[in-house]
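Bit of a strange request maybe. I'm writing a small parser for structure token strings and I need a real example to test against, not something I typed by hand. Could someone generate the tokens for this chain?
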Amino acid sequence: MSTKLALRGVLFGMVAAGLTACGAKVDCNSVTVKNDALEIIQSHLDAAVWYREMKIAMTGEPQLENITTLETRSGGAQAQCRAIYAYTYNDKPRAVDVTYNLAYLEDKKSTQVRVAVDDVKGGLMSLVMTEKPIKNGEEKVYDTYNNNLIAVRHWTKGVEDGTQVFYDRQTKGMIHQYTAVSGRKDGEETLWSADGTVTTRLVWKDGQATGEAMTEPGTDRLTNVKDIGYSITQLDRGQKQGQRKTYRTGSAGEYLAEVETFKDNQLDGLRQKFNQKGELVWQARYSQGQPDLDAEETKNTINDCVANRAERYRRNWATSYRPQEMEQRIAGETSIWEADCKEGRR
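Reply from user aminoacidic:
Good idea to test on real output. This should exercise your parser:
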């Protein structure tokens, strides 16, 4: 039986370990004392948020070694002890000094163990700040606010290896799962929204994904949240193929904001943008990732866009320039407007 207390950074454990007929003398090297001291240390390390990531890089069981009795008092009923807390981190043996005090409790016929846990915490914290953990085995990640489980990861020598599962921090439901082999995704990858709807389903082979993915608007970053908008992308062996549709949220709800056409991971075909009413507001035709300036759709869009920019400029600066100077300034801005209009910036 043991009880742990904390006071001013020095942690105490009270252990009911009966003494035999040895004159009620305490022993720094007692197996029971060392086990209780280790239990006290470990319980407080486990409570530290910074230790959670470090722990996955620690292998084997820590030990108290090189036991030294620094002082005895009261005929051996009290003792001050020193040891090294020996552990393995990043596959290397490590050690930090720790002290603990023993006292025989006459009324309980047991030994009280008091451990200066801050000795160990300080040593480990200093190490993890200078040497990042090389993770091995299973890692469980908890939310720092509500302490819910948000991920179960598997690692081998610092790279993902095995099933990786992620959970919603509020509903606790699974939202992302895939398998990695030596740091590379392999096999099925699935994402779910918080309500359990599948948002992405991919199959990975040789480092390339095939399937349908929901990403952040206009990007390749996977997401399971639609609130700020999203894109639906078709992938074939790691390359975007066919249409990518981007949806936004407006005053009347979700609407189709953009349609892009891809071939072999490049824009190739018609690219269109729409307003909340579903009206076409911009379009251009692309070839091998670049606007096709000879295509009728592209030329009309750029010309209309530049003309609108010029008209706005005239209205905004009508009282500042005379007509001839106004047209000179517009001519100087035209190349910038054309570049913006090619990218759909109206």
